[in-house]
């Protein structure tokens, strides 16, 4: 058990609220089936994924989100080619296809995925970069692998908060992944992800936090009406703009709205009252991607 894994104070009971309107059960089942079919098709195509045009991959990723009944609004654009570190805040499993819709990228994922039946070997063959979150000594090697991938011209997607938040609050960006961008001499592309309901109010229904199960989160999303995913692609930060990874991480950090005051140990504008970090075994069960940890 590790003491350095990042955590979040969010829980389903304290933070997640349903949307105002819901689909009928048959409608939700159809949405869920469509999502699963698209995901399965992607899994089956993983061995030949490197030969599929990036535009088709992006449309497939956006299609997964739309199949779940979530409208997508993307503003801005990422560089279509060349090494690029994509960094985003982390709320939901939906963030993964949304970030891949910005630009298909190699994801930084937890090493446990390798052991998953069937999906593990296929994901490994897709170019995913793995991080062993239980071994702090393995972190420099992970940073080196990310830097090598960036140097070869690949895009690498990272969620530097290292844990999911409900969307009313946010964590801070851990610095290690930014060292990889510095070492490789590539730009950093900050992306901000936000969810709203039909009335434009911030929505927490898509959040995948705390002891939530993936099925519970999936069902909450496909059952909701009027969800909108807003993806703001901010200006890329060119290499050499900031002197070190601390400054680079701070520059890429999305600001605005409520958040967690890490220094004071208090949240601002965030309901739920849960200030304790999650047990580490819960953190390891969160969604498959993980941002780089503090170093």
From TrEMBL:
<dbReference type="GO" id="GO:0016746">
    <property type="term" value="F:acyltransferase activity"/>
</dbReference>
<keyword id="KW-1133">Transmembrane helix</keyword>
<keyword id="KW-0472">Membrane</keyword>
<feature type="region of interest" description="Disordered">
    <location>
        <begin position="240"/>
        <end position="295"/>
    </location>
</feature>
<comment type="pathway">
    <text>Lipid metabolism.</text>
</comment>
<feature type="domain" description="Phospholipid/glycerol acyltransferase">
    <location>
        <begin position="84"/>
        <end position="196"/>
    </location>
</feature>
<protein>
    <submittedName>
        <fullName>Lysophospholipid acyltransferase family protein</fullName>
    </submittedName>
</protein>
<feature type="compositionally biased region" description="Basic residues">
    <location>
        <begin position="264"/>
        <end position="274"/>
    </location>
</feature>
<dbReference type="Pfam" id="PF01553">
    <property type="entry name" value="Acyltransferase"/>
</dbReference>
<keyword id="KW-0808">Transferase</keyword>
<keyword id="KW-0444">Lipid biosynthesis</keyword>
<keyword id="KW-0812">Transmembrane</keyword>
<keyword id="KW-0012">Acyltransferase</keyword>
<feature type="transmembrane region" description="Helical">
    <location>
        <begin position="28"/>
        <end position="49"/>
    </location>
</feature>
<keyword id="KW-0443">Lipid metabolism</keyword>
<dbReference type="InterPro" id="IPR002123">
    <property type="entry name" value="Plipid/glycerol_acylTrfase"/>
</dbReference>
């Amino acid at each position: 058990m590790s003491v350095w894994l990042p955590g979040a104070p969010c829980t389903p009971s304290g933070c997640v609220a349903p949307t105002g309107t819901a689909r009928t059960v048959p409608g939700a089942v159809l949405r869920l089936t469509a999502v699963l079919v698209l995901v399965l098709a992607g899994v089956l195509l993983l061995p030949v994924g490197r030969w599929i045009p990036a535009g088709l991959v992006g449309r497939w990723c956006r299609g997964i989100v739309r199949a779940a009944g979530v409208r997508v609004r993307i503003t801005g654009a990422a560089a279509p080619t060349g090494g690029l570190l994509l960094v985003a805040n982390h709320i939901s499993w939906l963030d993964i296809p949304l970030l891949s819709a910005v630009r298909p990228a190699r994801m930084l994922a937890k090493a446990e995925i390798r052991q998953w039946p069937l999906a593990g070997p296929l994901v490994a063959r897709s170019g995913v970069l793995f991080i062993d979150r239980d071994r702090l000594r393995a972190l420099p090697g992970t940073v080196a692998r990310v830097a090598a991938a960036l140097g070869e011209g690949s895009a690498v997607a990272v969620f530097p908060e290292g844990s999911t938040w409900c969307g009313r609050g946010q964590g801070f960006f851990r610095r290690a992944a930014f060292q990889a961008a510095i070492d490789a001499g590539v730009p950093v592309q900050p992306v901000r992800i936000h969810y709203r309901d039909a009335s434009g109010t911030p929505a927490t229904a898509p959040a995948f936090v705390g002891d939530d199960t993936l099925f519970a989160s999936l069902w909450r999303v496909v059952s909701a009406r009027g969800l909108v995913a807003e993806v703001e692609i901010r200006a890329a930060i060119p290499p050499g703009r900031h002197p070190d990874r601390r400054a680079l991480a701070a520059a890429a950090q999305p600001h605005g709205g409520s958040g967690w005051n890490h220094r004071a140990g208090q949240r601002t504008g965030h309901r739920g009252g849960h200030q304790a970090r999650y047990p580490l075994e819960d953190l390891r069960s969160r969604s498959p991607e993980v941002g780089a940890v503090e170093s």
